[in-house]
Amino acid sequence: MDHKKLAVENRSPILEVRNVSKLFGSVIALSDVSAHVFPGEVTCILGDNGAGKSTLIKTFAGVHKPTSGDYIFEGNKVDFSSPRDALDAGIATVYQDLALVPLMSVWRNFFMGSEPTKGSGPLRHIDVPLAKSICIQEMKKMGIDVRDPEQPVGTMSGGERQSVAISRAIYFGAKVLILDEPTAALGVKQSGTVLRYILEARNRGLGVIFITHNPHHAYPVGDHFVILRRGKVFGDFQKNEITQDRLVYMMAGGEDLDQLQDELAALRAGTAV
Amino acid sequence: MSNSAVAAAPDERLAQVGLFRRLLLRPEIGALLGALLIYIIFSLAAPEIFPSIRGAARFLDPTATLGIMAVAVALLMIGGEFDLSAGVMTGTTGLIFSYLTTSDCLNVAWLGLGNGQECFNFGLDVWSAMLVALVIALAIGFLNGLLVVRTELPSFIVTLGTFFILRGVNVGVTRLMTEQVRVTNIDDASGYLTAQRLLNAEFMMFGENFRSSLIWMILITIIATWILLRTRVGSWIFAIGGDYNAARSIGVPAAKVKIGLFMATAGAGWLVGIMTALRLRSTVASQGVGQEFIFIIAAVIGGCLLTGGDGSAIGAAIGALVFGMTRTGITFAGWETDWLFAFLGVMLMAAVFANNFIRNQARNLRMAETRQRDKLEEEE
């Protein structure tokens, strides 16, 4: 179904998995999952706890190898053996812990592991002014005004920390940006800020994969929604194919929820008698 | 009510406290104040000698070798690890150097190879002996690092093991080789005078004798500071100490940096071991035992966080100065030297409390600002 639709639209996904399954021993974490991500689009992966979201993104990120099925990146079948491979190919993952060092300054965190240098031999050193100015500039593109790039990341707000991790990933050449529950620990306002970064990244042509269990965060920014349930694709919709209410309903458990409501209503009636 | 007026307020304050706060945020500020305090105390207690050039020459002497070690230990601590074998390493390297430059008699009966003493004249020149000792020191440092990285055990335990092994081997081998607990007559070896001049010469400055070990310490402190603040490796040291897994996952060669730091500490132990051997013309088997904690104290007084991720090489050098001044000052003041360690312990605690207090103040100020900004954002 999907492939036909893609052919009609005459564009190709940057990242795609076909019939991917992942087994951990006898536990089936993913079963026959197919999904695709287009550049310049936000693909939301939604699902309850244990739906297989983490396993799927870890497969994207090169942490897990699929037990069966194909992983296609930029039209070629790939077989990443480590997150470094995926990163080098241009797939950057911003995990919940963000991989930031709280005691270190914003600019040092921004360039951690890839510091720009000048000079050679024993005099080779970090080009600090360049690093600071790039950091300020890149953060500004995300709409954050870093007044003091020497500020330790630990003293920033949750939303600002996200933006450091996201702008860092974009600056270092990410073509696909995977965001693992970026709004999970944030308040309403801060979540709003992060959702803006997501659109910012999308508008710059990245394929954004946004993992969340909050349909209210997903619907306003998403172009395409993949709902996982018990390791299977439960629904795959373009934005025009689904309403927010329907998405909320499906996320909440769909028919299961109806059944649960009936059961609970019956229980309430029972206790009332 | 205009929002801009409210929003402008924290900016004004930022400008006012900027310089002061920046100073407070430096990890070595506590050590600097402490050093000043100790200097004043002993200047009052021994006014005729301590504040003079002669006094400075005297208290800078123990400061120098201690400072070299403290700076290396500080780098390792910023990287999140300890090396309890650092003290005894000065003994191990000094002893190896000493065996190799002198002739030694081994009791081979003990090894089942004969029934008497077999004498060897290693008689290496000073430079070759130094090189061999360096290679062995770096190998032990590498092993320390490898064990810590591979087993993921706390370095406190791993290097405590190394400490005891080296301590035992130092005494055991020395007694086998010399039937004493001291190796002597290093000054007969060829190259001794040149090495002595390079590593431990006395030179005149302001009419007093200083030792070249002081210049080495200053040089090493400058290089270490430059590495920490201006090179990629320095950034990585802070990163692996601050959050090892975060650093590793973003592509910092965390294991290599950590092993390198253990090797650097061992290397510093080698330098100090050789300096001490050249100076005393001999090495005792118990050399360096008990020093490991003094290095850590100096680093902590200098602002190193025990949990890693923050600290300074200059701070560690100042921490060594605090120790040097205290040790010498107690003698100058005619106080009972038995109290030295009690005094050091009090200073360590005071330094840790002061550093903690200053750090919290600076951080709270910053956190308050961030919260204020968040609040303003939410109110927008």
Given helix and strand content, the structural type of chain B is: mainly alpha
Instruction: Quickly give the structural class of chain A.
Output: alpha/beta
**Intertermini distance of chain A:** 51 Å
CATH superfamily of chain A: P-loop containing nucleotide triphosphate hydrolases
Q: Characterize the largest beta sheet of chain A: strand count, sense, and whether it forms a barrel.
A: 6 strands, mixed
CATH topology of chain B: ABC transporter involved in vitamin B12 uptake, BtuC
CATH class of chain A: Alpha Beta
Strands of chain B, total number:
6
- Helix percent of chain B reads over 70%
Run of helices and strands of chain A: HEEEHEEHEHEEHHEHEHEEHH
Number of folding domains of chain B? 1
Query: How is the largest sheet of chain A built, in terms of strand order?
Result: 6-9-10-3-11-12
Describe this structure in a few short sentences.
By secondary structure, chain A is α/β, with parallel strands linked by helices. Chain A has helices at 2-9, 53-60, 83-89, 106-110, 128-141, 158-171, 188-203, 215-221, 244-252, 255-272, and strands at residues 15-24, 27-37, 42-47, 68-73, 76-77, 91-94, 117-118, 125-126, 176-180, 207-212, 224-229, 232-238. The longest helix of chain A has 18 residues, at 255-272.
Can you give a write-up of this model?
The complex is a heterodimer of chains A (273) and B (380). In chain A, helix 5 crosses helix 6. Chain A has a single domain (2-242), classed as 3-Layer(aba) Sandwich (Rossmann fold), CATH 3.40.50.300. Chain A is globular and about 75 Å long. By secondary structure, chain A is of the alpha/beta class. In chain A, strand 7 (117-118) and strand 8 (125-126) form a beta hairpin. In chain A, the strands form three sheets. A six-stranded mixed beta sheet of chain A has the order 6-9-10-3-11-12, sandwiched between helices. Chain A is built from ten helices and twelve strands. The model of chain A has no long low-confidence stretch (mean pLDDT 84). Residues 1-17 of chain B have low confidence and may be disordered. In chain B, the strands form three sheets. In chain B, strands 1-2 form a two-stranded antiparallel ribbon. A two-stranded antiparallel sheet of chain B has the order 3-6. Chain B has a two-stranded antiparallel sheet with strand order 4-5. Chain B has 14 helices and six strands. Chain B is mainly alpha-helical and 380 residues long. Chain B has helices at residues 3-25, 29-45, 53-78, 86-101, 126-151, 155-178, 192-200, 212-230, 232-242, 244-249, 254-280, 292-301, 313-332, 340-379; strands spanning 103-107, 117-121, 182-183, 202-205, 208-211, 283-284. Chain B has one domain (23-379): ABC transporter involved in vitamin B12 uptake, BtuC. In chain B, helix 2 runs antiparallel to helix 14. In chain B, 72% of the residues lie in helices and 6% in strands. Chains A and B meet through helix 3, strand 8 and helix 7 of A and helix 9, helix 10 and helix 14 of B.
